[in-house]
Amino acid sequence: MNERKPLTSEEISAIVDGLNPIDWTQMELLAKLPPGQRLLPTLNATLMLRAGLRSAFTKKFPELSPSEINMKVLEYLTPVRMPSHGSV
Length: 88
Fold this sequence. Notes:
Layout: H1 9-17, H2 24-32, H3 35-38, H4 40-60, H5 66-77
């Protein structure tokens, strides 16, 4: 089993510098919510992403049924390679 070496302070700084600054107000608001409600912003973002993909695939593949469009979305979002009948 490979053991991971700890990150150096320079490596940590490089990672942190690439991130957006923390929105402390948002963090405080989320911390006050019950755990189940803290997930809602992430779930809403996921729903928007899937809706956008469905819309794009519907325009790109107007001949496909809603079920086939959903399979295209699933194929796009799933790291597991599914057999496809063409490229997405």
